[in-house]
Amino acid sequence: MINIVRGIKYSVLDLALISEGDTTAETLQNSLVLAQKVEGFGYHRFWLAEHHNSISIASSATSVLIGYIAGGTKKIRVGSGGIMLPNHSPLIVAEQFGTLGNLYPNRIDLGLGRAPGTDQETAFEIRSDRMNSVHKFPEEIQKIQQYFSNNNAAARIRANVAEGINVPIYILGSSTDSAHLAAKKGLPYAFASHFATTQLFEALEIYRNEFQPSEFLDQPYVMAATNVIVADTDKEARRFFTSLIRGVIGILTGNRNFLQPPSEMTPDLIDFMKHPAVEQMLKYSFVGNKDRVRDKMEEFLAQTKIDEIIAVTNIYDAQDRVKSYHLFSGVMNEINGKRSTCN
């Protein structure tokens, strides 16, 4: 059973983005250092996302990286945000995460999504029958649950390392489809509002209205990801933000590159931010000093009534990224302190 605690928990989604001038090894080491730092800042979990064939993302072997992060930390939960299940055999996922659950008891999360995490050509290369698996997403989640169950001990096919191991499953979504599924299965639901913003509130309403209690969860549990960049001043935060903006330009134009160094906010970037598609994609980006981000985050939390916020902080310099997460932990402590006083 997943415990629901008082206050809004705050967590990290790390893409292990490779900054221009850094090696992959340095990027992975920076992810570990970040996890160690945010563990001390009071973050609840550290999630890593599965992406493939991307020059700027080093988290493609997600389960391997989860083990690296968990092995270098002490208490923070570590998991996938997420594993793109149609890319994988449910048995292999159960074996990998069952192994992680044995190595790091009660610290591993298994977030599952159905998107490819890459382009269609690469997705076909990963698994040629992937589209069949997409349509069988609910059934394949059920297979993983069965592999983790003690009741599978008498089955002909077993994931022995997973049986009876506590690895909670989370359903990830960027549209309304997975909201129905998470509600039906009585599992916690995480929405990718750091880039998919249009159906956030509809998805949350569906999940809450259709939720069916289960052996895993007795009431809805909602998480949402947002872009968060906090600095000492608004000007400095907006400067850091330019690296993310350029990354979005690369995605939309098909010209992906390493995470670029920040620059001043030029008129061209300001105009680009006004494009409807870009404006919608970055709608939930909270950028500024602590006071500005706190006000925006309080508004977002009041509107969504989520149980946990997942901060996505794509800043070029590793030390600036750590500092942003430190400042944001202060923001969340202020918000939770205010909520406690009001209650």
Q: Could you characterize what this model shows?
A:
By secondary structure, the protein is an alpha/beta fold. It has one domain (9-228, 305-333): Alpha-Beta Barrel (TIM Barrel), CATH 3.20.20.30. Helices cover 47% and strands 15% of the residues. It has 13 helices and 9 strands. An 8-stranded parallel beta barrel has the order 1-2-3-4-5-6-7-9, surrounded by 8 helices. The protein is globular. The protein starts with 8 loop residues before the first strand and ends with a helix.
For the structure shown, list the relevant keywords.
single chain, 13 helices, 343 residues, disordered N terminus, alpha/beta, TIM Barrel, 15% strand, 8-stranded parallel barrel, 47% helix
When the domains are counted, the total is 1
List the strand order in the largest sheet: 1-2-3-4-5-6-7-9
Q: Low-confidence runs (pLDDT<50, min 5 residues)?
A: 1-5
Briefly note the CATH topology name: TIM Barrel
Helix and strand succession?
Answer: EHEHEHEHHHEHEHEHHHEHEH
Radius of gyration: 19 Å
The chain-level mean pLDDT equals 94
Q: Tell me the fraction of residues in β-strands, as a range.
A: 5-15%
Alpha-carbon distance between the two ends = 26 Å
How many strands, which pairing sense, and closed or not: the largest β-sheet?
8 strands, parallel, barrel
Per DSSP E runs of 2 or more residues, the count of β-strands stands at 9
CATH superfamily: Luciferase-like domain
Structural class: alpha/beta
Number of helices: 13
| CATH architecture descriptor | Alpha-Beta Barrel
Q: What is the CATH class?
A: Alpha Beta
Oligomeric state as shown: single chain
